[in-house]
Amino acid sequence: MSDRLTSLDASFLYLEQSTTAMHVGSVMIFEPPGQGFDHDELVRIIESRIGAIPRFRQKVRDVPGRIANPVWVDDEAFDMSYHVRRTGLPRPGTDAQLQDFVARVQPRKLDRTRPLWEVYYVEGLQGGRFAIVTKTHHALIDGINALDIAHVIVDSTRGESQADGQMPWEPKAPPSSIELVAGAVVDAVRRPTQVIDLVRGGLNDALQVGLRAVESAGAMVSTVARTAARPAPPSPLNAQVGSARRWVMVSTDLEDYRNVRKRLAKGAYAEDVTINDVVLATIAGGFRSWLLARGEPVHSGTVVRAMVPVSVYGDDPAGMYANQVMACVVNLPVGEPGASMRLHQIAFAMRQQMEGGQAVGATSLANLAGFAPPTLHALGARLGSAVSRRLYNVMITNVPGPQAPLYAGDAEMLSTYPVTPLAQGQALAIGITSYNGGVYYGLNADREAMPDADDLAASIVDSLAELRSGRES
Questions:
Q1: What residue stretches are annotated with the O-acyltransferase WSD1-like N-terminal domain (predicted)?
Q2: 421 and 305, same structural domain?
Q3: What sections of 240-398 are H helices per DSSP?
Protein backbone atom coordinates (compact mmCIF):
# COMPACT_ATOMS: atom_id res chain seq x y z
CA MET A 1 0.00 0.00 0.00
CA SER A 2 1.21 3.48 -0.82
CA ASP A 3 2.22 5.92 1.90
CA ARG A 4 -0.71 7.60 3.60
CA LEU A 5 -0.63 11.30 4.41
CA THR A 6 -0.60 12.03 8.12
CA SER A 7 -3.54 13.97 9.52
CA LEU A 8 -1.24 16.96 9.78
CA ASP A 9 -0.14 16.81 6.14
CA ALA A 10 -3.71 16.20 4.96
CA SER A 11 -4.88 19.24 6.91
CA PHE A 12 -2.82 21.47 4.63
CA LEU A 13 -4.86 20.20 1.69
CA TYR A 14 -8.17 20.63 3.47
CA LEU A 15 -7.37 24.13 4.80
CA GLU A 16 -6.32 25.43 1.39
CA GLN A 17 -8.73 27.98 -0.07
CA SER A 18 -8.84 29.95 -3.29
CA THR A 19 -7.32 32.99 -1.54
CA THR A 20 -4.84 31.20 0.69
CA ALA A 21 -2.70 28.62 -1.10
CA MET A 22 -0.83 26.31 1.27
CA HIS A 23 2.63 26.26 -0.27
CA VAL A 24 5.94 27.80 0.69
CA GLY A 25 8.27 29.39 -1.84
CA SER A 26 11.74 30.81 -2.33
CA VAL A 27 13.44 33.19 -4.72
CA MET A 28 17.12 32.47 -5.30
CA ILE A 29 19.27 34.82 -7.36
CA PHE A 30 22.42 33.50 -9.06
CA GLU A 31 25.54 34.70 -10.83
CA PRO A 32 26.02 32.50 -13.90
CA PRO A 33 29.42 30.88 -14.42
CA GLY A 34 31.68 31.81 -17.31
CA GLN A 35 30.32 29.04 -19.50
CA GLY A 36 26.77 30.18 -18.80
CA PHE A 37 23.72 28.55 -17.25
CA ASP A 38 20.35 27.78 -18.84
CA HIS A 39 17.04 26.05 -18.31
CA ASP A 40 18.39 22.72 -19.57
CA GLU A 41 21.14 22.80 -16.96
CA LEU A 42 18.60 23.39 -14.20
CA VAL A 43 16.50 20.46 -15.43
CA ARG A 44 19.60 18.26 -15.44
CA ILE A 45 20.42 19.20 -11.85
CA ILE A 46 16.92 18.45 -10.60
CA GLU A 47 16.67 15.19 -12.54
CA SER A 48 19.96 14.01 -11.07
CA ARG A 49 18.90 14.68 -7.49
CA ILE A 50 15.20 13.99 -7.01
CA GLY A 51 15.73 10.25 -7.43
CA ALA A 52 16.87 10.18 -3.80
CA ILE A 53 13.56 11.73 -2.72
CA PRO A 54 10.68 9.78 -4.32
CA ARG A 55 8.06 12.20 -3.02
CA PHE A 56 8.90 14.67 -5.78
CA ARG A 57 7.57 12.18 -8.35
CA GLN A 58 4.46 11.31 -6.37
CA LYS A 59 1.01 12.87 -6.30
CA VAL A 60 -1.88 12.84 -3.86
CA ARG A 61 -4.80 10.50 -4.43
CA ASP A 62 -8.00 10.63 -2.39
CA VAL A 63 -9.57 7.52 -0.90
CA PRO A 64 -13.11 6.91 -2.21
CA GLY A 65 -15.66 8.38 0.17
CA ARG A 66 -12.81 10.08 2.07
CA ILE A 67 -12.99 7.32 4.67
CA ALA A 68 -9.26 7.80 5.32
CA ASN A 69 -6.54 10.30 4.64
CA PRO A 70 -5.25 10.50 1.03
CA VAL A 71 -2.23 8.49 -0.07
CA TRP A 72 0.92 9.22 -2.05
CA VAL A 73 1.13 7.36 -5.36
CA ASP A 74 3.71 7.46 -8.14
CA ASP A 75 2.83 9.78 -11.01
CA GLU A 76 3.02 7.44 -13.99
CA ALA A 77 2.83 10.42 -16.35
CA PHE A 78 5.44 12.48 -14.50
CA ASP A 79 6.49 15.36 -16.76
CA MET A 80 9.60 17.27 -15.72
CA SER A 81 8.93 19.96 -18.33
CA TYR A 82 5.66 20.79 -16.56
CA HIS A 83 7.33 21.26 -13.18
CA VAL A 84 10.45 23.13 -14.32
CA ARG A 85 9.43 26.14 -16.37
CA ARG A 86 11.29 28.83 -18.22
CA THR A 87 10.44 32.52 -18.31
CA GLY A 88 12.21 35.83 -18.82
CA LEU A 89 11.90 39.40 -17.66
CA PRO A 90 11.58 42.22 -20.20
CA ARG A 91 14.34 44.77 -20.34
CA PRO A 92 15.81 46.15 -18.17
CA GLY A 93 15.17 43.15 -15.88
CA THR A 94 14.99 45.05 -12.59
CA ASP A 95 14.41 43.65 -9.12
CA ALA A 96 11.01 45.36 -9.16
CA GLN A 97 10.05 43.36 -12.26
CA LEU A 98 11.16 40.16 -10.53
CA GLN A 99 9.04 41.06 -7.51
CA ASP A 100 6.00 41.57 -9.74
CA PHE A 101 6.59 38.18 -11.36
CA VAL A 102 6.81 36.44 -7.98
CA ALA A 103 3.66 38.21 -6.79
CA ARG A 104 1.79 36.83 -9.83
CA VAL A 105 2.93 33.20 -9.77
CA GLN A 106 3.21 32.45 -6.07
CA PRO A 107 -0.52 32.79 -5.15
CA ARG A 108 -1.59 30.28 -7.83
CA LYS A 109 -2.52 26.96 -6.28
CA LEU A 110 -0.50 23.90 -7.26
CA ASP A 111 -2.18 21.30 -9.46
CA ARG A 112 -3.24 18.45 -7.15
CA THR A 113 -3.33 15.97 -10.03
CA ARG A 114 0.47 16.24 -10.23
CA PRO A 115 3.38 16.24 -7.75
CA LEU A 116 2.98 19.31 -5.55
CA TRP A 117 5.93 21.48 -6.59
CA GLU A 118 7.00 23.88 -9.34
CA VAL A 119 10.24 25.62 -10.29
CA TYR A 120 10.65 28.67 -12.54
CA TYR A 121 13.91 29.51 -14.26
CA VAL A 122 13.83 33.31 -14.68
CA GLU A 123 16.38 34.83 -17.04
CA GLY A 124 16.99 38.41 -18.05
CA LEU A 125 17.88 40.00 -14.71
CA GLN A 126 20.14 43.03 -14.79
CA GLY A 127 23.85 42.27 -14.66
CA GLY A 128 23.47 38.92 -16.40
CA ARG A 129 21.96 37.30 -13.29
CA PHE A 130 19.16 34.76 -13.26
CA ALA A 131 16.64 33.67 -10.62
CA ILE A 132 15.10 30.37 -9.60
CA VAL A 133 11.64 30.63 -8.04
CA THR A 134 10.27 27.58 -6.23
CA LYS A 135 6.88 26.48 -4.88
CA THR A 136 6.43 23.43 -2.62
CA HIS A 137 3.18 22.43 -0.96
CA HIS A 138 3.15 22.08 2.82
CA ALA A 139 1.64 18.61 2.49
CA LEU A 140 4.75 17.45 0.64
CA ILE A 141 7.22 18.78 3.20
CA ASP A 142 7.49 16.53 6.22
CA GLY A 143 11.21 16.82 6.89
CA ILE A 144 11.72 13.06 6.47
CA ASN A 145 10.48 11.93 3.05
CA ALA A 146 10.76 15.31 1.34
CA LEU A 147 12.15 18.78 1.80
CA ASP A 148 11.45 22.04 0.04
CA ILE A 149 12.46 21.67 -3.62
CA ALA A 150 14.98 24.48 -3.12
CA HIS A 151 17.09 22.10 -1.02
CA VAL A 152 17.35 19.80 -4.03
CA ILE A 153 18.63 22.53 -6.35
CA VAL A 154 21.50 24.03 -4.36
CA ASP A 155 24.61 22.35 -3.04
CA SER A 156 27.56 23.41 -0.94
CA THR A 157 30.00 22.30 -3.63
CA ARG A 158 30.39 23.76 -7.09
CA GLY A 159 29.91 21.57 -10.11
CA GLU A 160 28.48 18.12 -10.71
CA SER A 161 25.99 16.61 -8.29
CA GLN A 162 27.00 13.63 -6.19
CA ALA A 163 23.73 11.98 -7.24
CA ASP A 164 24.48 11.94 -10.96
CA GLY A 165 24.18 8.62 -12.74
CA GLN A 166 21.22 7.17 -10.86
CA MET A 167 19.19 4.33 -12.28
CA PRO A 168 16.18 5.30 -14.43
CA TRP A 169 13.02 5.81 -12.44
CA GLU A 170 10.28 3.21 -12.82
CA PRO A 171 6.90 4.26 -11.36
CA LYS A 172 4.83 1.75 -9.46
CA ALA A 173 1.33 1.03 -10.69
CA PRO A 174 -1.20 3.08 -8.71
CA PRO A 175 -3.61 1.22 -6.42
CA SER A 176 -7.17 0.66 -7.58
CA SER A 177 -10.15 2.16 -5.77
CA ILE A 178 -10.84 -1.22 -4.18
CA GLU A 179 -7.25 -1.42 -2.94
CA LEU A 180 -7.48 2.09 -1.52
CA VAL A 181 -10.61 1.22 0.44
CA ALA A 182 -9.11 -2.06 1.62
CA GLY A 183 -5.97 -0.28 2.75
CA ALA A 184 -8.05 2.25 4.67
CA VAL A 185 -9.86 -0.55 6.49
CA VAL A 186 -6.58 -2.26 7.38
CA ASP A 187 -5.12 1.01 8.66
CA ALA A 188 -8.27 1.64 10.73
CA VAL A 189 -7.75 -1.73 12.44
CA ARG A 190 -4.03 -1.23 12.97
CA ARG A 191 -4.21 2.46 13.93
CA PRO A 192 -7.65 3.27 15.35
CA THR A 193 -6.44 6.64 16.60
CA GLN A 194 -6.14 7.79 12.98
CA VAL A 195 -9.88 7.31 12.55
CA ILE A 196 -10.50 9.36 15.67
CA ASP A 197 -8.25 12.11 14.35
CA LEU A 198 -10.11 12.08 11.04
CA VAL A 199 -13.49 12.43 12.77
CA ARG A 200 -12.19 15.23 14.94
CA GLY A 201 -11.20 17.26 11.89
CA GLY A 202 -13.17 19.96 10.16
CA LEU A 203 -15.15 22.13 12.58
CA ASN A 204 -13.27 20.82 15.62
CA ASP A 205 -9.83 21.60 14.19
CA ALA A 206 -9.36 24.78 16.23
CA LEU A 207 -10.28 22.94 19.43
CA GLN A 208 -7.84 20.14 18.67
CA VAL A 209 -5.06 22.67 18.09
CA GLY A 210 -5.61 24.03 21.58
CA LEU A 211 -5.76 20.57 23.15
CA ARG A 212 -2.60 19.43 21.39
CA ALA A 213 -0.79 22.56 22.53
CA VAL A 214 -1.54 21.70 26.15
CA GLU A 215 -0.68 18.03 25.67
CA SER A 216 2.63 18.83 23.98
CA ALA A 217 3.62 21.35 26.62
CA GLY A 218 2.85 18.90 29.43
CA ALA A 219 2.63 20.67 32.75
CA MET A 220 3.59 23.95 31.13
CA VAL A 221 1.04 26.25 29.59
CA SER A 222 2.37 27.24 26.19
CA THR A 223 2.58 30.78 24.94
CA VAL A 224 0.02 29.98 22.31
CA ALA A 225 -2.47 28.67 24.86
CA ARG A 226 -1.89 31.70 27.09
CA THR A 227 -2.34 34.14 24.27
CA ALA A 228 -5.46 32.53 22.83
CA ALA A 229 -7.48 34.07 25.64
CA ARG A 230 -6.07 37.52 24.88
CA PRO A 231 -6.92 38.57 21.33
CA ALA A 232 -4.27 40.36 19.31
CA PRO A 233 -4.66 44.15 19.20
CA PRO A 234 -6.52 45.69 16.25
CA SER A 235 -4.18 46.33 13.35
CA PRO A 236 -4.25 47.10 9.61
CA LEU A 237 -2.16 43.92 9.34
CA ASN A 238 -5.38 41.98 9.92
CA ALA A 239 -7.72 42.29 6.96
CA GLN A 240 -9.81 40.27 4.56
CA VAL A 241 -7.40 38.45 2.26
CA GLY A 242 -7.92 38.26 -1.48
CA SER A 243 -6.12 36.16 -4.07
CA ALA A 244 -3.72 38.85 -5.38
CA ARG A 245 -0.38 39.58 -3.73
CA ARG A 246 2.43 42.07 -3.47
CA TRP A 247 5.85 40.63 -2.79
CA VAL A 248 8.86 42.74 -1.84
CA MET A 249 12.42 41.68 -1.14
CA VAL A 250 14.81 43.51 1.18
CA SER A 251 18.55 42.86 1.23
CA THR A 252 20.61 43.76 4.31
CA ASP A 253 24.06 42.97 5.71
CA LEU A 254 24.41 40.48 8.59
CA GLU A 255 27.44 42.42 9.87
CA ASP A 256 25.18 45.42 10.56
CA TYR A 257 23.08 43.31 12.95
CA ARG A 258 26.20 42.02 14.66
CA ASN A 259 27.54 45.56 15.10
CA VAL A 260 24.24 46.74 16.57
CA ARG A 261 24.31 43.84 19.01
CA LYS A 262 27.88 44.64 20.08
CA ARG A 263 27.10 48.33 20.60
CA LEU A 264 23.71 48.07 22.30
CA ALA A 265 23.97 44.77 24.13
CA LYS A 266 25.33 46.15 27.39
CA GLY A 267 24.60 45.47 31.04
CA ALA A 268 23.91 42.35 33.08
CA TYR A 269 22.14 40.53 30.27
CA ALA A 270 24.32 41.65 27.37
CA GLU A 271 25.06 38.10 26.29
CA ASP A 272 21.32 37.41 26.03
CA VAL A 273 20.70 39.97 23.29
CA THR A 274 20.69 37.91 20.12
CA ILE A 275 20.89 38.69 16.44
CA ASN A 276 17.28 37.55 16.27
CA ASP A 277 16.38 40.27 18.79
CA VAL A 278 18.07 42.87 16.59
CA VAL A 279 16.11 41.59 13.57
CA LEU A 280 12.83 41.91 15.49
CA ALA A 281 13.78 45.39 16.72
CA THR A 282 14.49 46.36 13.12
CA ILE A 283 11.05 45.15 12.06
CA ALA A 284 9.43 46.92 15.04
CA GLY A 285 11.01 50.19 13.96
CA GLY A 286 9.85 49.57 10.41
CA PHE A 287 6.28 48.99 11.59
CA ARG A 288 6.41 52.19 13.65
CA SER A 289 7.41 54.37 10.69
CA TRP A 290 4.96 52.58 8.39
CA LEU A 291 2.02 53.07 10.76
CA LEU A 292 2.86 56.74 11.31
CA ALA A 293 3.13 57.31 7.55
CA ARG A 294 -0.31 55.73 7.17
CA GLY A 295 -1.77 58.10 9.75
CA GLU A 296 -2.56 55.26 12.13
CA PRO A 297 -2.77 56.09 15.84
CA VAL A 298 0.53 55.27 17.55
CA HIS A 299 0.91 55.88 21.29
CA SER A 300 3.31 54.69 23.95
CA GLY A 301 1.46 51.40 24.44
CA THR A 302 0.98 50.52 20.77
CA VAL A 303 2.23 47.03 19.88
CA VAL A 304 2.19 44.65 16.95
CA ARG A 305 1.90 41.05 18.12
CA ALA A 306 4.11 38.67 16.18
CA MET A 307 4.34 34.88 16.13
CA VAL A 308 8.08 34.23 15.94
CA PRO A 309 9.71 30.81 15.55
CA VAL A 310 13.13 31.38 17.10
CA SER A 311 16.28 29.74 15.76
CA VAL A 312 19.08 31.95 16.99
CA TYR A 313 21.80 33.00 14.57
CA GLY A 314 25.17 31.54 15.46
CA ASP A 315 28.47 33.32 14.97
CA ASP A 316 30.13 30.25 13.45
CA PRO A 317 30.62 31.16 9.76
CA ALA A 318 30.53 27.49 8.85
CA GLY A 319 27.27 26.87 10.68
CA MET A 320 24.36 25.46 8.76
CA TYR A 321 20.72 25.48 9.79
CA ALA A 322 20.10 25.57 13.52
CA ASN A 323 18.22 22.63 15.00
CA GLN A 324 17.10 24.27 18.25
CA VAL A 325 13.75 25.84 17.48
CA MET A 326 11.27 27.56 19.75
CA ALA A 327 8.28 29.74 18.92
CA CYS A 328 7.29 32.83 20.85
CA VAL A 329 4.41 35.26 20.69
CA VAL A 330 5.99 38.65 21.27
CA ASN A 331 4.53 42.14 21.35
CA LEU A 332 6.75 44.39 19.22
CA PRO A 333 6.83 47.78 21.01
CA VAL A 334 6.15 50.00 18.02
CA GLY A 335 4.94 52.77 20.36
CA GLU A 336 8.41 53.13 21.87
CA PRO A 337 10.23 56.00 20.06
CA GLY A 338 13.74 54.93 21.08
CA ALA A 339 15.39 52.35 18.81
CA SER A 340 17.75 51.02 21.48
CA MET A 341 14.92 50.80 24.01
CA ARG A 342 12.83 48.79 21.51
CA LEU A 343 15.71 46.35 21.21
CA HIS A 344 16.11 45.91 24.97
CA GLN A 345 12.36 45.46 25.48
CA ILE A 346 12.22 42.79 22.79
CA ALA A 347 15.33 41.03 24.13
CA PHE A 348 13.83 40.98 27.63
CA ALA A 349 10.48 39.66 26.39
CA MET A 350 12.12 36.92 24.33
CA ARG A 351 14.45 35.89 27.17
CA GLN A 352 11.51 35.82 29.59
CA GLN A 353 9.57 33.45 27.34
CA MET A 354 12.51 31.18 26.67
CA GLU A 355 13.62 30.95 30.31
CA GLY A 356 10.11 30.87 31.76
CA GLY A 357 9.04 27.82 29.79
CA GLN A 358 6.50 29.84 27.83
CA ALA A 359 8.01 29.28 24.42
CA VAL A 360 6.81 26.36 22.33
CA GLY A 361 9.33 23.67 21.42
CA ALA A 362 9.80 21.99 18.07
CA THR A 363 7.81 18.92 19.14
CA SER A 364 4.87 21.09 20.11
CA LEU A 365 5.10 22.96 16.84
CA ALA A 366 4.80 19.72 14.91
CA ASN A 367 1.40 19.22 16.54
CA LEU A 368 0.42 22.87 16.51
CA ALA A 369 1.27 24.25 13.16
CA GLY A 370 2.84 21.78 10.78
CA PHE A 371 6.42 22.68 11.62
CA ALA A 372 9.19 20.84 9.78
CA PRO A 373 12.78 21.85 10.62
CA PRO A 374 13.98 22.10 6.98
CA THR A 375 11.13 24.48 6.21
CA LEU A 376 10.69 26.75 9.19
CA HIS A 377 8.83 29.19 6.95
CA ALA A 378 5.90 26.75 6.89
CA LEU A 379 5.02 27.53 10.51
CA GLY A 380 1.48 28.60 11.33
CA ALA A 381 -0.60 27.33 8.44
CA ARG A 382 -2.38 24.77 10.62
CA LEU A 383 -3.79 27.44 12.93
CA GLY A 384 -6.38 28.44 10.35
CA SER A 385 -8.13 31.73 9.86
CA ALA A 386 -10.12 32.22 13.08
CA VAL A 387 -7.38 31.08 15.41
CA SER A 388 -4.57 32.99 13.73
CA ARG A 389 -6.59 36.19 13.65
CA ARG A 390 -7.02 35.94 17.42
CA LEU A 391 -3.45 35.00 18.28
CA TYR A 392 -1.24 37.45 16.46
CA ASN A 393 -1.06 40.23 13.89
CA VAL A 394 1.82 38.96 11.78
CA MET A 395 3.95 35.84 11.32
CA ILE A 396 7.72 36.40 11.22
CA THR A 397 9.84 33.37 10.33
CA ASN A 398 13.56 33.87 10.73
CA VAL A 399 15.76 31.04 9.44
CA PRO A 400 19.55 31.04 9.84
CA GLY A 401 21.14 29.72 6.68
CA PRO A 402 24.69 28.69 5.78
CA GLN A 403 27.33 31.38 5.92
CA ALA A 404 29.24 29.92 2.99
CA PRO A 405 28.34 30.01 -0.72
CA LEU A 406 25.86 27.58 -2.24
CA TYR A 407 25.74 26.59 -5.89
CA ALA A 408 23.38 25.32 -8.56
CA GLY A 409 25.88 23.48 -10.70
CA ASP A 410 28.63 26.02 -11.30
CA ALA A 411 26.39 29.04 -10.66
CA GLU A 412 26.88 30.72 -7.29
CA MET A 413 23.79 31.77 -5.34
CA LEU A 414 24.03 35.47 -4.50
CA SER A 415 20.93 35.81 -2.32
CA THR A 416 17.81 33.94 -1.28
CA TYR A 417 14.41 35.30 -0.22
CA PRO A 418 11.56 33.28 1.32
CA VAL A 419 7.92 33.51 0.25
CA THR A 420 5.71 32.58 3.20
CA PRO A 421 1.96 32.07 2.69
CA LEU A 422 -0.78 34.24 4.15
CA ALA A 423 -3.40 32.89 6.52
CA GLN A 424 -6.98 34.06 6.36
CA GLY A 425 -7.34 37.45 7.99
CA GLN A 426 -3.63 38.26 7.84
CA ALA A 427 -2.48 40.78 5.28
CA LEU A 428 1.27 40.25 5.71
CA ALA A 429 3.77 37.45 6.32
CA ILE A 430 7.48 38.18 6.73
CA GLY A 431 10.10 35.54 5.96
CA ILE A 432 13.78 36.15 6.69
CA THR A 433 16.77 34.04 5.70
CA SER A 434 20.42 34.68 6.46
CA TYR A 435 22.93 33.49 3.90
CA ASN A 436 26.64 34.07 3.30
CA GLY A 437 26.85 37.38 5.15
CA GLY A 438 23.44 38.73 4.17
CA VAL A 439 20.02 38.89 5.79
CA TYR A 440 17.24 38.68 3.21
CA TYR A 441 13.60 39.59 3.83
CA GLY A 442 10.64 38.46 1.77
CA LEU A 443 7.47 40.47 2.47
CA ASN A 444 4.37 38.69 1.18
CA ALA A 445 1.30 40.93 1.39
CA ASP A 446 -2.30 41.06 0.26
CA ARG A 447 -2.44 43.35 -2.76
CA GLU A 448 -5.51 45.33 -1.73
CA ALA A 449 -4.89 45.56 2.01
CA MET A 450 -1.23 46.60 1.65
CA PRO A 451 -0.70 48.74 -1.45
CA ASP A 452 2.19 50.34 0.46
CA ALA A 453 4.23 47.17 1.03
CA ASP A 454 7.18 48.94 -0.65
CA ASP A 455 6.96 51.67 2.00
CA LEU A 456 7.19 49.08 4.77
CA ALA A 457 10.26 47.58 3.09
CA ALA A 458 11.90 51.01 2.95
CA SER A 459 10.98 51.60 6.61
CA ILE A 460 12.73 48.36 7.60
CA VAL A 461 15.91 49.53 5.86
CA ASP A 462 15.65 52.91 7.61
CA SER A 463 15.04 51.22 10.96
CA LEU A 464 18.24 49.20 10.63
CA ALA A 465 20.13 52.36 9.74
CA GLU A 466 18.69 54.01 12.87
CA LEU A 467 19.87 51.14 15.06
CA ARG A 468 23.25 51.09 13.37
CA SER A 469 23.85 54.83 13.77
CA GLY A 470 22.67 55.03 17.37
CA ARG A 471 20.38 58.00 16.74
CA GLU A 472 16.94 57.95 18.31
CA SER A 473 13.70 59.00 16.56
A1: 5-279
A2: yes
A3: 254-264, 275-294, 339-355, 362-369, 384-391
